[in-house]
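job 3f2a | input accepted
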Amino acid sequence: LVLVLGTTLFSAGVLLGGLAQSIGSLVVFFGVVNALGQCCIAPPAYSLISQHHDERTRSTAMGIFQGADYLGIILASSAAGWIAGLGGGMWRIAFMLVGGLGIAWAVALGFLMRNTPQPSADRPTVRDAFGALVRKPTAVLIAVAFGMFMYTNCALRLWTVAFIQRSFEGVSLASAAFHAVFWFYVGALIGISLTARALDFVGGKRPSVRLETSFVGFLLCIAPMIAVAYSSTLVGCCASLASLGVTVGVYEAAHYPAMFDCIEPRYRSVATGLTGCLAFLIASFAPMTVGWMSDHLSMRLAMASMAVFFLMGALVLLPAIFVFFKKDYVGR
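job 3f2a | predicted structure (332 res):
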């Protein structure tokens, strides 16, 4: 029910965004309504996946779910360049088409999905779930590290297009929008697909491998992020974005499985929502910080500064790996 409601809400927000007649109404429809709908997707989706998959298949299942998001962004970025080239009010048609398809899909979900609720005794309150989360230092540290990741994720989504257009002469807005998204998410799709399968293969023998992979993923992101910031050619920048996407995929393949390794099943949906709130709170500072650095220092330095947050994410996970994980691990 929550998934269907969320899909309906965010699709309606997109559709109504195409009908908006002012900036205010666009903010309400595409910002508020769409955001409310999206908030209803990840917590029940990841919880539902964890109900049907244990540590032997969980990473692959969650990787497929996240990979679908990457694939959607890749297709959208390809279409965006074409639509931008048409000019006029074609962006409205795009909004209404995507929103209409989303509502149709929500109707299909309502008929096709079968509910698999937890037993009534396993329905905790938000207070219970929050208590279960904060009593697990590993989960808290994973949540903080996820905030470092979402900071860079938000900054990349908002500023990479402007960075490409300002750094390389002759690049149109439509071309910059395509390159900023396409290469990164192609790399991410490759990274998450390969890593998720490998984690499930190794996870049964070494339970801490998902947490360790999150740590390695953060470290692997540092060099490509710096390479993106200081690329001298558009080709080099795109190659670096693809490399960064692969390393981001490595991290994302491990993040939620690592979190669920130390959260009991009945608390996972609420824990996903709570950690997401913390992550987006940290990420909310990214647009202002990167923008200020771009104006007062340089845009290349602003982009390179994101590597610091990847490093901080890795450092946050160190005590989780070496001190708390064995005690917090909940097993199958």
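job 3f2a | The chain is about 80% helix and 0% strand.
job 3f2a | closed
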